[in-house]
Each structure stands twice: as C-alpha cells, then as structure tokens.
Sequence to fold (179 residues):
Amino acid sequence: MILNEAKNIKKKNLHLIIRKIVSNDIANDYVNGLNSNKFVRYNIKDKINKTFQIKYIDDHNRSTDKIIIGIFHKNKLIGTCGAQKKSKKKYYIGIFIFNIKYRGFSLSKILISYLSHYLRRRESVTYVYASVNRKNKVSHNLFKSLKFKENLKEKKRYKSDVVYFIKIEKLIKLNHLIT
Fold:
C-alpha cells in the first residue's frame, strides 16, 4: 500500500516531511541503523544489506495489506513507521527512528499518530497493535505515553514480547500531533 500524500511538519525549527519511501531513499545510514538495533526482529540472524532493504520497501509499496512511510529532514530519511494488516479492522504498527540525532523530538509519536489516522481514513481500521520486546524500555514508554494498553489476550509472536493496542479514534483525540 502506498501513501499518496505528503505531510509537512514543523518541529523545534525542523522542517520535516512524512511521505512514502522509495528505493532512492534507502541509504547506508538507514541499513546500518537496522543492523545495529538489537530490537529489529529480522536482523537477528543475518545482516541486512541495501539490496535486501530496497526489495523490502518495494514489496511493502506493492502490497495491499502492508504500508511503510518515512519521515524526512532535508529530503533525507531519518525514521520509518510501518503497519501490517492483522484483520479487516486491525493493523500491527512498528516504529524506527534510526538517526539518533533526531531522537527526543517526539517524531515516533507523530509518525504513529499520522499513520493511524491514515489507516482509519483509507482502510477504515479501528485498532492498531504493537508488539514490543520486554527489554525495549524506550518503546514501552512511547506506547504508554500514547495511551496504548497492554493486551493480555493477544497471541505473542515471541515470548519476550508485550502486545499493546489502542482504538485509533482514542489515539487521534488524545494526540493532536497531526490533525
């Protein structure tokens, strides 16, 4: 699924753009960020290379039940947010701000809120879920700050995960970051 719009955001004197990611956006610092992050699931066994990541992005852009968007500063990708369909009304969402220079600007909150709002408008999605490794304190704090609740009924992909969820309507009302 491709995001067919761009959203300009001004945050602490930064001019940022949220838009779809294309092959040309995949740079070595993004790939290096994926390889150095211990919480990136598909990085456990093998190193990711640029070719693999371009194919990953292209596959998401062709998919009807997956989406990945990026946040850019000066036309350079600094973070991503993706979602995968769980059911007709539910999507799993993931976030990755790989450029550490841009951490602490609430960019993750902006991306999650924006993508959730987009999924609600385009796909009539009602809930978003997130699966977070128990040791990933930063992500736990992020989802709790967005008022996600722990879901004890949802089957975990990994034993070390905690699954969070929120009704998109509530997320949008609580976080006026993109509306």
Remarks:
- The longest helix spans residues 107-123.
- The chain has five helices and eight strands.
- The longest strand covers residues 76-87.
- Helices lie at 28-36, 50-62, 107-123, 137-145, 168-174.
